């Protein structure tokens, strides 16, 4: 494997992570709450893809849209179970409730699919594509293409449509949004749905190369969290950037040293960031009004 | 002018509380179609609480409210907005990351054509907003933010506009500029309820006024009469 | 004794404890004894977790790490180096403590979410090390052959004896937790949890307190881990994993975040739930996830908290009679301190929030013994000024001197200890504490309440008793004696404001900053409050009152300073300021376009200083 090839596969992984982190930020921005079940929704997407392709033999054109719908609905459910009842409590409460929902999901996977890791269907057919000396799997290319497409789509949604504007307004000041006629509650549920369906799609994309397992989502939640911290809390572009950074770093260090060292170094780097800049790398510290 | 068009908003015996603290104690007031009414009172008198109750952030403990005879009980803020209650809150609260144009657009119902038409109307009331339509909410000056907050409320073509302390933090000249739009808003068929600390100005731009003290209406009447009233002065400057 | 039992839910708790002890000692099968032993270990872990999560209110995800670390220390030292319990156990407690010390200082400063993530990160790094460092830890397989507890030549192998031993350690741990939280120190924790800002402006070193709580958590976690290693005789990375953390969190949430009984009930419930459905492991985990979620939503204070609230509703508690007041000695002494000297100097202070200039070049001098009113329209910068003076905000420019000492950008608790106290525009009280205890917390620094002191105090906490008596004196000064034993959440707005003033007075300050003390009071109450503040000032305390209400101020202040748009626009006697054209304009507005010639800021600060 050449260095460039490593970077490429790091970017493919990063593209999928970016979707996970992006979904995570949507929910943070709309509610101020951390969805610690985000990684489990990646697994949910992976399992949904396996189920749809094996039991219902859904063709791969329909696979991603259907996975998106399933995880969207699960996300809306998450909003009603873990967020709305605890909305007025300290943010840590929602953190715990999503953690618990994640645990429930993990055990549903365990019961439904068994403890062993499973491989998902490929989205773009098996095999590799060669460019000169570079070899890259079709799955990686599909992952990058889908991720770029979705990131562009979410940009268009937020910047250009009335629903997108209303979602942003709701995220910025929920009560005020309601006072100017915006149905904020439904929009927050939709935000949860979009956030988790991005994770679900990432799961379907990753399932083929990286396997799906009941507890495989936990480190992904942590990665999304770290990506968002590195990129600057609440920044969409930062989340994408942070994800790319993390995964390229991880792939390269894993290849040359070991996965454990890569992960360890990543956490150490995050702790160091906290030490030097408690407010995150890019974000400005906001003074609290007393 | 007052009372000629029948009651637009009627608030009857409303009591409301924050947590366990009673902030409104049996407030009654009416606003007729086509009039501008001022709500005067010191900090903590309950002006903002009354507004929040009318807007629907707070359900009253007792009493009732109706807009053109239709009870508002149990309606969420977004429904009340569509019934015709526009709200420009204390501290303006424009959406900081949205552009001026977007701030206005989000508040419009209906399709693109209707949105553009309403946008044009608001820009005709506040030409400064048209000039800065691509600036983000946070980049505006206080006066422009205030106009934006009012304009945003007008996007719903409200029958009643609630203006909570529009002069807050504005230079006196700007206060005049903002308040002087009230007559033109009223002439377009929107009644105005204005909460103000700036008594003289409030009375100048309104037809009638209510004086609120510790959650109760202690005085009400035509603006011209209240301008002379001792109680008003006392509430502010200690006579 | 009977009175002690009549409070809270002590009768059912005492009965439950007796039943549990009898069951464990006489009726339980060996299997059940083992389960109960594990319950005891988890209860110890949870009690430790309660310090940081419950009492301080910070979501730490490092408790399992401390637990696993303790287990590994015992495992490695016991199995590999064959060291005895008296060596391994203390070290198992100390190693996690050391880790907490090293990471605690930077990590505890972080905001909520970041703190949770950082503690999680530490945990994941430790898991990685445990898995990778195979020579020492045995890697993923772990280390078998951890010896049983051997104490003074006696080996505790029998399950009954092990049960007794573990529960004895638990009882010791519970006792320490009880000591730490029952008195004044515990009430300080309570306020820190509700409002860090209020606590720090009462002179409480919030960072230090959070640090102490974190260390205690680590210590307990290590102890629990060590015991677990002795009981299951194997250590493995499983002990460190997130699932242990979630179990611990679940137990805490279900039992109750701040109650020792909650920790024990939570541990017993969850361990038994898992044991009895061992065959259906994943269904159980699903179910207990759902149940915990339900408890989180329906009973935010956990089962014990729900019971306490039920009891409070069904059978009213016997109310303590308020203590006899004890005069605030430093306060009465202050009068002798003399008048006239400069107390606070604010020199050309500016503060910006983003693009908004909240304060611009503001200068203000306060002299000993005077009462000054700070007026100005909403948004003119009054509260910002007080926040800068009391250290909650950093000034962008300018200098502050208090009692001759430079206090520019000093932390609030140090400024407070110099003799400054304040109230808040938005009330910052602990709703669950009585008015008296809310005020008593202000005495924590003066009474030198501390961790060691509270652990080793036998009998009633003298700090709390003295603090309450002083608090009573402060309450009486504000006329709220009759409400002393009422929880603050049940008091009307105006009364709560007076509790805040009393709390500030109880620190025996030389400078008292009051932010809109009369808001929400009717005219009669305002007159009463003004008279009481006047009496406080007569002790020689300097008072700065932020108010809109000029009637209230006229009967109180000797001097008024008016701010508008972050600048001082007028200063002088109440009569002068009320006649000042700029003030009238700022407040009442004018029909004519105003001329702001002579009274614009700049000249005013000199005028202010030259007035004396």
Characterization of this structure:
The complex is a heterotrimer of chains A (290), B (239) and C (612). Chain A is built from 11 helices and 2 strands; from the N terminus they run H-H-H-H-E-E-H-H-H-H-H-H-H. Chain A has helices at 3-31, 38-55, 60-83, 91-113, 138-160, 162-172, 174-179, 184-210, 217-231, 236-256, 259-276; strands at 128-131, 134-137. A two-stranded antiparallel sheet of chain A has the order 1-2. In chain A, strand 1 and strand 2 form a beta hairpin. The radius of gyration of chain A is 19 Å and the shape is globular. In chain B, the strands form 2 sheets. Chain B has a 6-stranded mixed β-sheet, with helices on both faces. Helix content of chain B is 36%, strand content 27%. In chain C, the strands form 3 sheets. A 6-stranded mixed β-sheet of chain C has the order 8-9-10-5-11-12, with helices on both faces. Chain C has a 4-stranded antiparallel β-sheet with strand order 4-3-6-7. In chain C, strands 1-2 form a two-stranded antiparallel ribbon. In chain C, helix 23 (523-538) links the parallel strand 9 and strand 10 (542-546). In chain C, helix 3 (30-55) packs antiparallel against helix 11, helix 3 crosses helix 12 and helix 12 crosses helix 13. Chain C starts with a helix and ends with a helix.
Global Rg of chain A: 19 Å
Shape of chain A: globular
Oligomer: heterotrimer
Largest sheet strand order of chain A: 1-2
Q: How far is it from the N-terminal to the C-terminal residue of chain A, by CA?
A: 56 Å
**What does the overall shape of chain C look like?**
elongated
Q: How much strand content do the residues of chain A show?
A: under 5%
Q: Please tally the helical runs of chain C, counting DSSP H or I stretches of 4 or more residues.
A: 27
How much helix is in the residues of chain A?
Answer: over 70%
Largest sheet of chain A: 2 strands, antiparallel
The strand count of chain C comes to 12
Features:
heterotrimer, A: 290 residues, mainly alpha, two-stranded antiparallel ribbon, 11 helices, 2 strands, 74% helix, 3% strand, disordered C terminus, B: 239 residues, alpha/beta, six-stranded mixed beta sheet, four-stranded antiparallel beta sheet, disordered N terminus
């Amino acid at each position: 494997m050449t260095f460039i090839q490593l970077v490429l596969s790091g970017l493919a992984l990063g593209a999928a992570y970016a979707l996970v982190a992006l979904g995570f930020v949507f929910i943070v921005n709309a509610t101020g709450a951390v969805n610690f079940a985000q990684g489990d929704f990646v697994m949910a997407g992976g399992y949904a893809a396996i189920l749809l392709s094996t039991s219902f033999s859904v063709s791969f054109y329909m696979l991603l849209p259907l996975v998106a719908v399933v995880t969207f609905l699960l996300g809306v459910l998450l909003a009603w179970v873990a967020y709305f009842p605890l909305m007025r409590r300290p943010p840590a409460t929602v953190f715990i409730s999503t953690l618990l929902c994640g645990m429930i999901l993990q055990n549903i996977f365990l019961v439904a699919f068994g403890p062993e890791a499973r491989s998902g269907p490929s989205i773009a057919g098996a095999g590799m594509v060669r460019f000169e000396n570079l070899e890259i799997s079709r799955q990686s290319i599909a992952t990058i293409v889908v991720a770029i497409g979705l990131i562009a789509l979410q940009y268009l949604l937020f910047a250009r449509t009335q629903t997108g504007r209303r979602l942003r307004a709701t995220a910025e000041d929920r009560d005020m949004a309601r006072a100017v006629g915006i149905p904020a509650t439904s929009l927050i549920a939709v935000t949860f749905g979009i956030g988790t369906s991005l994770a679900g799609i990432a799961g379907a994309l990753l399932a083929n190369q990286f396997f799906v397992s009941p507890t495989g989502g936990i480190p992904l939640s942590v990665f999304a969290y770290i990506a968002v911290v590195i990129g600057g809390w609440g920044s969409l572009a930062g989340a994408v950037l942070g994800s790319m950074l993390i995964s390229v770093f991880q792939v390269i260090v894993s290849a040359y040293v070991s996965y454990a060292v890569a992960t360890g170094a990543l956490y150490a780097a995050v702790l160091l960031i906290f030490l030097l800049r408690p407010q995150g790398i890019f974000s400005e510290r906001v003074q609290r009004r007393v | 002018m007052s009372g000629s068009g029948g009651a637009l908003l009627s608030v009857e015996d409303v009591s409301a509380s924050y947590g366990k603290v009673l902030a409104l104690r049996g407030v009654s007031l009416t606003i007729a179609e086509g009039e501008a009414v001022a709500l005067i009172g010191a900090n903590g008198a309950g002006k903002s609480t009354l507004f929040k109750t009318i807007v629907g952030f707070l359900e009253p403990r007792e009493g009732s409210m109706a807009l053109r005879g239709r009870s508002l009980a149990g309606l969420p803020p977004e429904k009340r907005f569509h019934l015709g209650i526009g709200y420009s809150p204390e501290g303006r609260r424009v959406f900081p990351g949205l552009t001026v144009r977007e701030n206005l657009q989000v508040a419009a119902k209906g399709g693109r054509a209707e949105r553009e038409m309403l946008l044009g109307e608001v820009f005709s009331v506040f030409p400064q907003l048209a000039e800065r339509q691509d600036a983000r909410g946070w980049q505006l000056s206080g006066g422009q933010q205030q106009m934006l907050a009012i304009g945003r409320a007008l996007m719903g073509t409200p029958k009643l506009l609630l203006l909570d302390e529009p002069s807050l933090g504005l230079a006196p000249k700007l206060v005049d500029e903002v308040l002087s739009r009230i007559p033109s808003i009223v002439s377009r068929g929107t009644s105005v309820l204005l909460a103000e600390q700036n008594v003289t100005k409030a009375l100048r731009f309104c037809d009638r006024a209510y004086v609120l003290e510790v959650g109760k209406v202690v005085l009400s009447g035509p603006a011209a009469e209240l301008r002379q009233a001792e109680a008003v002065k006392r509430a502010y400057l200690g006579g | 004794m009977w009175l002690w039992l009549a409070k809270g839910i002590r009768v059912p708790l005492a009965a439950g404890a007796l039943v549990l002890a009898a069951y464990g000692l006489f009726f339980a099968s060996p299997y059940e004894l083992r389960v109960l032993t594990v319950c005891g270990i988890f209860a110890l872990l949870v009690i430790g977790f309660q310090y940081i999560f419950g009492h301080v209110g910070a979501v730490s995800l490092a408790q399992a790490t401390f637990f696993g670390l303790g287990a590994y220390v015992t495992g490695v030292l016991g199995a590999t180096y064959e060291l005895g319990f008296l060596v391994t156990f203390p070290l198992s407690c100390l190693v996690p403590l050391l880790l907490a010390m090293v990471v605690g200082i930077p990590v505890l400063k972080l905001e909520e979410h970041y703190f949770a993530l950082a503690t999680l990160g530490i945990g994941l790094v430790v898991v990685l090390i445990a898995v990778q460092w195979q020579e020492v830890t045995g890697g993923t397989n772990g280390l078998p052959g951890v010896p049983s507890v051997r104490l003074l030549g006696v080996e505790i192998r029998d399950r009954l004896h092990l049960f007794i031993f573990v529960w004895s350690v638990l009882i010791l741990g519970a006792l320490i937790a009880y000591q730490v939280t029952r008195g004044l120190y515990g009430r300080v924790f309570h306020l820190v949890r509700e409002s860090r800002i209020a606590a720090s402006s009462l002179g409480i070193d919030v960072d230090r307190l959070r640090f102490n709580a974190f260390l205690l958590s680590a210590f307990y976690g290590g102890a629990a881990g060590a015991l677990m290693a002795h009981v299951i005789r194997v250590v493995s990375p499983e002990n460190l994993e997130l699932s242990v953390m979630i179990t611990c969190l679940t137990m805490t949430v279900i039992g109750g975040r701040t109650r020792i009984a909650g920790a024990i009930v939570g541990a017993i419930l969850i361990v038994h739930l898992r044991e009895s459905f061992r065959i259906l492991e994943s269904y159980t985990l699903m179910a207990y996830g759902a149940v915990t979620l339900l408890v989180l939503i329906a009973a935010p204070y956990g089962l014990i908290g729900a019971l306490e609230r039920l009891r409070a509703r069904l059978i009213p508690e016997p109310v303590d009679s308020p203590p006899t007041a004890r005069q605030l000695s430093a306060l009465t002494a202050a009068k002798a301190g003399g008048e006239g000297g400069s107390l606070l100097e604010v020199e050309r202070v500016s503060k910006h929030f983003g693009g908004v200039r909240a304060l611009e070049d503001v200068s203000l001098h306060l002299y000993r013994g005077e009462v000054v009113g700070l007026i100005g329209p909403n948004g003119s910068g009054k509260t910002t000024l007080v926040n800068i003076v009391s250290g909650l905000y950093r000034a962008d420019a300018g200098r502050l001197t208090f009692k001759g000492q430079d206090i520019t950008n000093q932390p609030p608790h140090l400024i407070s200890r110099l003799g400054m106290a304040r109230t808040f525009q938005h009330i910052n009280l602990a709703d669950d504490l009585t008015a008296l205890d809310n005020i008593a917390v202000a005495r924590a620094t003066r009474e030198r309440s501390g961790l060691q002191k509270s652990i080793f105090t036998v009998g009633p906490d003298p700090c709390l008793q003295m603090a309450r008596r002083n608090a009573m004196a402060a309450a009486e000064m504000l006329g709220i004696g009759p409400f002393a034993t009422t929880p603050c959440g049940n008091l009307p707005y105006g009364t709560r404001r007076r509790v805040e003033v009393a709390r500030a007075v109880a620190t025996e300050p030389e400078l008292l900053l009051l932010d809109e003390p009369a808001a929400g009071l009717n005219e009669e109450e305002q007159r009463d409050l003004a008279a009481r503040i006047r009496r406080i000032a007569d002790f020689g305390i300097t008072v700065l009152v932020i108010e809109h209400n000029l009637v209230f101020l006229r009967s109180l202040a000797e001097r008024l300073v008016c701010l508008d748009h972050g600048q001082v626009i007028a200063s002088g006697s109440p009569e002068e300021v009320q006649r000042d054209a700029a003030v009238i304009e700022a407040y009442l507005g004018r029909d004519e376009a105003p001329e702001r010639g002579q009274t614009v800021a700049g000249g005013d600060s000199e005028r202010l200083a030259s007035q004396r």
